[in-house]
Amino acid sequence: MSVIYDRVALIGLGLIASSMFWAMKRAGLAGEVTGYARSEETRAVAREIGLCDRICGSAAEAVEGADLVVLCVPVGVMGAVAEEIASALKPGATVSDVGSVKKAVIEAVGPHLPDGVHFVPAHPMAGTEHSGPRSGFAELFDNKYTLIVPVEGSDREAVDRLEQLWQAMGARTDEMDADHHDLVCAVTSHTPHLIAYTMVGVADDLRRVTDSEVIKYSAAGFRDFTRIAASDPTMWRDVFLTNKDATLEVLGRFTEELFALQRAIRTGDGDLLHAYFTRTRSIRRGIIDAGQDTDAPDFGRVKKR
Ligand code: NAP
């Protein structure tokens, strides 16, 4: 494949930025990639493992001359980082982000960007419970969707080019508006994470089940909850604080359904439970048929760090 952007700057050097770097390198999609993270420790690790072609001492220095700048920091600091880099952006550059929430990021970042800079938000629907500069790998986005969320007046050419980059990094792409994105993610990602956090918290509270029993017998569904509940606390705090409306909407529906199932268990309504589980089983089949997961006993998840 050939170079899509001569100069790319990655701000924040965690799981997503490092995976982007390795995916761009795998296919030769960028001439030079610069990087910046706030701590000296992360910048030192990045230099040590060859993450980015050049690690800079400030975000402004990293974005100088860049054709594409991707904000890969927690959602809650996107606005502050945009403000920090605004005056150093090259006219005609594209600024994108990978935040898990879109409406709040667009509201926080958009006002800081100067005229003549294109803003094209995006969200790769791929991740692991690991974070930091060592956690990335080139295959993270392969066959997973990246949602492109153009803002009002987004330049078509800039949108197409960013979409081309994500596809060349292995992803499938779709475009949608910010409100719809936030609702889709509340259903498919944000609320499931909250449920996993809650379930692991409940198991921890139930002192009658000892820690060793929880670990020993966790091959059942609980194991996957613990994996999800090990996700980065800062990232997920910011997700819930910024995707408040959609998450509360989905949680409201969730608790209603939970009460209905609780009632069915109490009253011995086996027909209701069976019908419910039959419906949900077909959703799982749909996910596998769409190529978004596998039927393998380990869920096809190869451990990579
Ligand atoms: P991560 O591994 O925790 O890395 C975050 C990076 O941001 C770190 O390098 C951190 O630097 C840096 N950072 C934090 N505050 C900063 C600031 N003020 N200025 C400059 N750098 C700063 O996070 P991640 O998982 O890659 O997530 C990054 C973004 O992708 C988030 O917005 C998240 O919502 C989104 N996302 C995550 C996933 C997922 O599954 N993880 C999936 C899709 C999208 P230090 O190391 O120096 O603290």
Please give the CATH class of the largest domain.
Answer: Alpha Beta
Shape label? globular
List all distinct small molecules, including ions and cofactors, that are bound in this structure. Answer: NADP nicotinamide-adenine-dinucleotide phosphate
Number of helices: 12
Q: What brief labels describe this structure?
A:
single chain; 305 residues; alpha/beta; Rossmann fold; 6-phosphogluconate dehydrogenase C-terminal fold; 2 domains; six-stranded parallel beta sheet; three-stranded mixed beta sheet; 12 helices; 9 strands; 50% helix; disordered C terminus; binds NADP nicotinamide-adenine-dinucleotide phosphate
Structure description:
The chain is of the alpha/beta class and 305 residues long. The protein has two domains: 5-176, Rossmann fold, CATH 3.40.50; 180-268, Orthogonal Bundle (6-phosphogluconate dehydrogenase C-terminal fold). Helix content is 50%, strand content 12%. It is built from twelve helices and nine strands. It has a six-stranded parallel beta sheet with strand order 3-2-1-4-5-6, with helices on both faces. A three-stranded mixed beta sheet has the order 7-8-9, covered by helices on one side. Strand 8 (145-148), helix 6 (156-168) and strand 9 (172-175) form a beta-alpha-beta unit. NADP nicotinamide-adenine-dinucleotide phosphate binds next to helix 1, helix 4 and strand 7. NADP nicotinamide-adenine-dinucleotide phosphate is lined by residues 11-17, 37-39, 42, 72-75, 77, 80-81, 98-100, 123-124, 127, 131-132, 232, 235.
